[in-house]
Structure formats: C-alpha cells, structure tokens
Amino acid sequence: MGELRAGLLGVGMMGRHHARVMRELDGVELVAIADPAGDPHGVAGPLEVLPDIDALIEAGIDIAVVAVPTRFHEDAALKLAAAGVHALVEKPIAESVEAGARMVEAFRQAGLVGAVGHIERFNPALQELRHRLEAGELGAVYQIQTRRQGPFPSRIADVGVAKDLASHDVDLTAWVAQSEYESVFAQTTFKSGREHEDMIAITGRLTSGTIVNHLVNWLSPMKERVTVVTGERGAFVADTSTGDLTFYANGTIPLEWESVTAFRGVSEGDVTRYAFPKREPLRIEHEAFRDAVLGKPSDVVTMEQALRTLAVVEAALESAREGKVLQP
C-alpha cells in the first residue's frame, strides 16, 4: 500500500501540531486541510484551506484527524465514517456519552479505525511507568493520585475543565492500572464567570480496589502535571510536563530515633530517577493510528475506550451536582 492520504480538520492551537507531525510521518501524506476559521497559525503552506468537513472528504482522503471544538466532533466523525475514512478525533470523544456512542457504532458498522487523542498514554514517563508496574516493580498498587493544574487556556470555550483536562487523568489512570472505575465522587467550582466548571476534585475507586484522586483546575498560576502511584514497595512519581519518572523506595535501614521508630509504617528509602528515551507523545500517537489503519499491532486509543472515559467524567460531574457517590 502507498502513502495514506491524510486530511486535517481544524488548524487551531492543537491542529497546527497535528499538521507538523503528519507532514513528518512515514507512510502518510497530508493532502488537505479544512477550517472554517481559516489558518490563523499559517500551517497550510501550499495547501488550500477548505471550508468544511464535506470539502475535506471530497479531496479523496484515507484518514483524517479531527481537531475542532468538541461540539463539532460527532458531525465530523459521522460524515467521515459514512465516507469510509478512518479517523483520529481529539479528546474528549464527544460532547455527551450519547453522541460518543453514535460515533462508536458508526465506525464499528463501517469496519473503520476510530481513534481518540488521549495523548497522555503516549507520554514517555507514563509509558515507562506502566511497563514497570506490569513487571511488578511496585507490587500491589494502593493509590493513584493526579494533579493537573494551571492558568485558564483561552482556546477552550465549549467544555469545562472536567472534559477538557480531567478526561486525561481518568483515561491514563485506568490505562496505567489496567482497571476500570468502580465509583466516583466529585466537587466542582465556578470561579471564572463561565457556565462550565473551572475546578474539579474527584475521588474514587477502581475495580481492582485501588483508590484514585484527581485535582484539576484552570485557576492556578503555576502549571502542574503529576501522577503519583503508591504501592507495596514505594511510590512512582511521573511528571508528564518533563517526561521524568522517579521512584521513591520504601526504606529498609533500621531507624534509631525513638519517636520515628514508634510509627508503624514505611520510611524513606532510596530515590531513583530513571533514564529512558523520550519521544514526542503526539508523534507516537500518530504512529499508533497509522499502524492501526494498516492492520499492524497498535496501542491506539479506541473510541470504545474513550467513550468509557467520558462516561466516568460525566458521572463525576453528576456526582458534583447531586452530592453523592455514583457508579459510572
């Protein structure tokens, strides 16, 4: 098979990066770009900026990336499925679980690859973390905690912080632990004058029994992207903004300080920061999508998986409204 003819819908803040990676990807040729808002970042180059998804499909594409606001995901995806075009849709999969379910069914019936851009799975720190958990280096996993905080991004207008950012944490947690969410409880705040929440705190439990906690907001002056996995032998700390992974081992050296030895728990041990290859997550994500389309082994995030993530996020939002624990 020759190069896959690729189209890109949306060349905003995220779409411009998709365009760059698609142009550098082996086996893929970016042949068409569409955005009704034009080309604010000047990424089209020699390509005409087409007006909509219909024009993009008419360009004769094999695959497409959808990087437009969430409320437009369903319409674009359903049209791509009807045209026989494989699609990678930015996260969250859709504005609602119902819309996402329609997308899943459309791609299933058409026999096409439907993928969603939960890019954190491809972060080198989290990939290394999952490999080490699978190898049993931590032993039993007790708790997974994430913190994703920073200033408000002007690019987001149609969803709140839960669907835009907490969806990352829900997806990566279930993926790293290889366990689904059993229950969630959440609280939200609305401080920036918008109709959508700008802060959410989620606690819950996975079917494996692991406790989870997520702190997510658009109200912090500093940016933080941290995942902490605590278990039987210590704790892994993944900083996904830098791609670093550090292991804090439980202490094994006897303590002679009486007030400390009275504590029946773990103590501080060796600290190790691992060295490993750090490739760009977006490039790895595109490679996984390409390989899935070509029928090769791939870790692509499927629409079915992304729909499950959205269901957990929506359950968290409903929990915040109703003030009770819910099962997604």
Automatic annotation (TrEMBL):
Keywords: NAD
Protein name per its UniProtKB record: Gfo/Idh/MocA family oxidoreductase
Domain GFO/IDH/MocA-like oxidoreductase, residue spans: 127-236
Domain Gfo/Idh/MocA-like oxidoreductase N-terminal: from-to ranges: 5-118
Native source species: Agromyces lapidis
InterPro entries tied to this protein: Gfo/Idh/MocA-like_OxRdtase_N, Gfo/Idh/MocA_Oxidoreductases, GFO_IDH_MocA-like_dom, NAD(P)-bd_dom_sf
